[in-house]
Amino acid sequence: MNDNNRALYLFAFIIALGGLLVQTKKTGPSSEITNNEIMGHIRYLSHENRSGRHPGTRGSRDVIAYLIKQLKSYGVRPGANNSFIQPFDITTGIGLGGDNYALIDEDSLEIEQEYIPLSFSSNGETVGGLVFAGYGFNIDEESLRWNDYDGLDVNGKWAVVMRHSPERGNNHSPYSSYSPLHKKMLVARDKGAIGIVFISQIEDSSLYPLNYVAGYNNVGIPAIHLSNKVADKLLGGFGWSRQSLQETMNRSLESINFDIRGKTLKTNIGLKHIKTRAANVIGEIRSGNREYRDEYVVVGAHFDHVGKGGPGSGSRKPDQDAIHPGADDNASGTAGLLEIAQKLATQKSKLKRSVLLIGFDAEEKGLLGAKNFVKNPTVEIDKIITMINMDMIGRMKDSTVTVGGVGTSSVFEPLLDSLRSGRGFNLSMSKPGLGPSDHAAFYSDDVPVLFFFSGFHNEYHTPDDTWKHINLQGTTDIVNLVYDVAYHLTRVTRAPVFSEAGPKQAGTATGRRFKVTFGIMPSYGSIEVGVEVDAISKMDGPASRAGIKKGDIIKSIDGKPIKDIYEYMDRLGDLKRGMTVSVSIERDGEEMTLDVSF
Questions:
Q1: Could you tell me if residue 499 is inside a domain?
Q2: Domain membership flag for residue 7
Q3: pLDDT, tens only, 415-440
Q4: Are 390 and 322 a contacting pair, CB within 8 Å?
Q5: For the chain, percent of residues with pLDDT exceeding 70
Q6: Which DSSP state fits 509?
Q7: What domain range includes position 85?
Q8: Distance CA 40, CA 38 (A)
Q9: Which of 118, 126, 211, 288 is most buried by its number of CB atoms within 10 A?
Q10: In this model, does residue 351 exceed pLDDT 50?
Q11: Helix/strand/coil (H, E, C) string of 435-487?
């Protein structure tokens, strides 16, 4: 080859290379959903520097910034009133605040050593005499009767009751549903007690921990737990000890109650809730189609996890103080959200409907991010034609993925049947719309939902849920399917029509079995005094027949006041089939009473 030819080829090569570099710079990363990009997102989100992505932490803020940066790079616009962030406050803890003290007669008790307030205690000063009321039961069933308040004057006094039951440790005991401390507090309050004092059985050695429990509103009566030393001293002057009381009641299965004459308890309780600022991340791909652009497909995944675990966190190893990476739960779903956002953005000109891409915060706290969005939507809820949720899509096994919510619209099953063809995995379709993730909040508001999930595993909610266990190809396959579903739904002429598919109300927080159902979905995140109705779960149920509506606040049942979700559960447990009771509700600031029949 001569010098002229060499120069010509060199010139052509430089031109071609320059064009390639310009094109690479112009297009950036591939718009296709790739293994490498999914794993890159998962490794970042589950890295130890994120510290388990607990809401409000530095790790969570890093993730929020990361999501926003990625969405911006794809050309996705802000979806929350010119912002990518939809902030909201959550309660994450409870602690001692203000002036706490307790005195039995003139003896001052040391807080956290000799007594401790309980998380559902009311605040303020209380003083009165004391009575011992056995296990604090008021049971009137056909097969079980036990009334610790029979013949006992508790009005204006503190009720002193023993923890647990005569059949401690037996989960199938008939006493188990009457043994929770909050239930015993409610019984004491109904009997006229001004406060409740818990003492331990002989198996317990330490004070009950002051841990936050979601739903308690601190509006009952003061509740404290005495140390064993103080309890034995209090009872000793009346010829009893904790051991003798426990052994006698457990042996006879009969109550012991008596007036603790001459003793006065004075307390001042000051508890404070610890608030944390959380935030959903919302991006929008706005369609240019004038006819359909105001309708939306929502694609969502939660990005939070349980931090470093610990008691009450949801960790399956609560005694292990270690970062819970949450690679599958739910870095996998969040990675899928980002990849779908990127690919949909490149197809914007082909989309008829618009798309909202939502990273939900505080899902592990009770779907709080999703509930906040549904309560404060950035678009009209009835304009959302489908919500698609990805949660734990990183551990496909046996070449199978589960899709929930298929029954929430008649179009879903044939759509999935048409899209499953030719893929290297099987679809297991489930009809119910309710489920343990963010889509449940949308289903309760009559939005058709689809929930993609690859299954539970031994590493779930433990420090071992790391990126090394991710089935990367399986994750990519699921994300590609979700993309195809979302893309199809943006382009169909007829939007999916909502169908009720199973209950809208989850099981109770206490696990108690009820003889009747009210037919509502209570709001677990409400701050109202009473129980706010999130949704009517049974259209022919007792609540619906009585005229109760979404947004009503239930204040009392059968003349007995309700302060929070837990009191509602306890009141519901007292109802039987065939009963008709009066229910007081607040609607738009006005109170009314309705008769509800079961």
A1: no
A2: no
A3: 999 999 899 999 999 999 988 899 99
A4: no
A5: 91
A6: S
A7: 31-92+278-491
A8: 5
A9: 118
A10: yes
A11: CCCCHHHHHCCCCCEEEEECCCCCCCCCCCCCHHHCCHHHHHHHHHHHHHHHH
